[in-house]
Amino acid sequence: MEDANILINKKLRQNFDGKIVRKDLTKKIKEGANVPVYVLEYLLGQYCNSDDEEIIQSGVESVKHILSDNFVRPDESEKVLSKLRQRGSMRIIDRVTVSLNLRYDEYEATFSNLGLEGVPIPEEYPEKYDRLLCGGIWCIIQLEYNAQEEMENAIGFTADVKSKKKKKEAPLISISNIKPIQMPSVDINELKEGRRAFSKEEWIDILLRSIGMEPDRLSEREKWLLLLRMVPLVENNFNLCELGPRSTGKSHIYKEVSPNSILVSGGQTTVANLFYNMGRHTMGLVGLWDCVAFDEVAGINFKDKDGIQIMKDYMASGSFARGKEEKAASASMVFVGNINQSVDVLLKTSSLFDPFPPEMGTDTAFLDRMHCYIPGWEIPKFRPEHFTNDYGFITDYLAEFIRELRKEQYGDAIDKYFILGKNLNQRDTIAVRKMVGGLVKLIYPNGEYTKQELEEIIKISLEMRRRVKEQLKKLGGMEFYDVNFSYIDNESFEEHYVSVPEQGGGKLIPEGMLNPGQVYTVSQGKSGMIGVFRMESQMLPGNGKFDRTGLGSDRECKEATNTAYSYLKANGKRISGSLNVTTKDYVINYQDLQGLGMSNKLALPTLIALSSITLGKPVQSSLVVLGEISISGTMIKADNLADTLQVCLDSGAKKVLLPQISAVDFATVPAELMSSFNLIFYQSAEDAVFKALGVE
Fold first, then answer.
1. Number of other residues whose CB lies within 10 A of the CB of residue 105
2. Is the pLDDT of residue 398 over 90?
3. Is 493 exposed, middle or buried (0-12, 13-18, 19+ CB in 10 A)?
4. What number of other Cβ atoms are within 10 A of residue 203's Cβ?
5. For the chain, how long is the longest CA-to-CA vector?
């Protein structure tokens, strides 16, 4: 392993000299200096560009010295200006943005930490470093204090007014020299040429070291998941979601690594801030940054009611309408947050989008716009050994070539070797193409890859999108039934299916025989969504008392259970001659397994549970009871049969007891869903009890 790393470092020196840095040096200084990583690494790349330990140490000291002497802290801006006035000239490190003042026809600089605006800057600098005009860059600036000039022109205007129509007051502070300490520009062809020297594995290791991670400590799967975090930075209008445990570095890359992305902490925002300010006629964050990341999704809150609707429009099309015109932007959206329960529990009881606020987490139209869901629970909690001490790209160089790659498109890379399967609709296809394009740009920026390498990318892209679709199927039912994603080989016409690892987990309805009095039913809960409900019964000696727990004060649910008990008292002898409810007391506990609100379709399941506990016979294994009865025993068919059967399948049911009158709805149920069960039909309430208990 050591030899492999030495070889990678040697190749990096040959191909990217001056653009690499030893990441342990960054860590050492970063802990004490509050400057962005990309500024720090540029300085280290300049001063510590050697293998000689002595040169590196003296370089580190030089960088520390430069930062302590010249870096402007925002709270010390007045102190720096006072020093400048005393000395007459001074070198500082600050972020400089340049704009053209059309009134006076001259370029003016704005200093971020120093708080100065309108400082004239010679024309040569914006022409030479065009990034000064596009959001600004960190620089070492030589400032001059022109007190003498101000005295000569006491009124504030110079005598010479011929050269320009209007002349501004002679400035007190001027700029005599600027040296960028970020990459002023990137040659993308140089990167593509340099990439040829490395294998796929070496290049992935370099990318991971460039964002600070140590690939030798990560599995192959973990490496791919970390690379997927970078796709929103390299692909336009890419919507990514990552939910997982704490301290897995979900927001690190968007906050520290890239100067082109912004992390909205706390989640509180407005339409004006995020999209477009109607009052000032200025673009919001999506127009100014390559990537907008929301930290802690549970706290996302728009002060405006139409915020989520505008966000949905933007996530689907990359444009939104504000006022009289439509605005377009290319920023990617990233949503990161914490999962508080285990994934198994979430999959059984709700969806993997559960941490989102309710107006987002249950809105299938919003969630369908997610291109990728990274399983954050598969990424290890980061410890000190997960961070690299080896060479990687200077963060600023990485960020800039990633930004340049946004201009290129590789979404059609799939078509050369593969066709996507029939179950992918238009949104699924767009999502998979964007993911494939992003990963190809990151790993094969020169566009040179084999069929096998592309297949590897397609598999992980299909899995990430299928994870979104599986949750949509839970929330939206039959509308999102087609989740069996596949791709077809153009040459052999073989179809390969891609599954989601966590879907094979435990089921709500267990296999094997249950205890007498235990019954599962699937029906519509109080929230309007279809869920799984369980009944557990106890029988005690007594005088015919019937108690229910778990229903709270819900009148409709209690009435349904009373219907069952009344029916059993009146018709018990038709079920069994030995069935006598007046000599026993009964307690049934009702459980809403998915937190959707208790169902009021409880009469038939309760009747079966009471019969089961009284006769001491359990219901058939893996059985779900559908349908309902009235007080007179009239059958009521199951609502929304297709969606109900889909929930039965997801919950682990293998047998379904349903009323014969539900047969009219079979046309709405896909054949493959119907064939997943052993369907048992009943014609009356007594018939339902016999068949549930397996009595012929």
1. 11
2. no
3. exposed
4. 18
5. 118
- Asked if 685 and 563 touch (Cβ cutoff 8 Å), the reply is no
* Burial (Cβ within 10 Å: 0-12, 13-18, ≥19) of residue 63: buried
In the numeric block, the tokens 């016979």 are attached to: 617
pLDDT digits (tens, 9 = 90+) for 46-58: 777 777 778 888 8
Q: Angle formed by the axes of helices 188-195 and 395-405, to 10°?
A: 100
Residue indicated by tokens 């912004």? 262
Listed residue (534, 514, 531) closest to 522, CA to CA: 531
Put residue 447 in one of left, alpha, beta given phi > 0 → left and psi -120 to 50 → alpha: left
Report the C-alpha gap between 62 and 52 in whole angstroms: 15
What DSSP line would sit under 399-440, residue for residue?
A: HHHHHHHTT---GGGGGGTEEE-TT--HHHHHHHHHHHHHHH
State the CB neighbour count (10 A cutoff) for residue 216.
16
**Closest CA relative to residue 93, chosen from 74, 118, 78:** 74
pLDDT, tens only, 359-369: 888 888 889 99
* Cα–Cα dist 500/482, whole Å: 14
What is the overall mean pLDDT for the chain? 84
d(CA 18, CA 115): 32
**CB under 8 Å to 52, separation ≥6 — which residues?**
none
Provide the whole-model pTM. 0.74
* Per-residue pLDDT at 127: 84
- As given in the structure block, the two tokens for residue 248 are 């897995």
HEC string of 79-130?
HHHHHHHHHCEEEEEEEEEEEEECCCCEEEEEECCCCCCCEECCCHHHHHCH
Amino acid identity of residue 115, one-letter, is G
DSSP letters for 538-597: EEEESSS-EEEES-TT-HHHHHHHHHHHHHHHHHHHHH-TT--STTEEEEEEEEETTSS-
Six token digits for residue 611: 């019969």
**DSSP label of 449:** -
Pairwise CA distance, residues 481 & 472, whole Å: 9
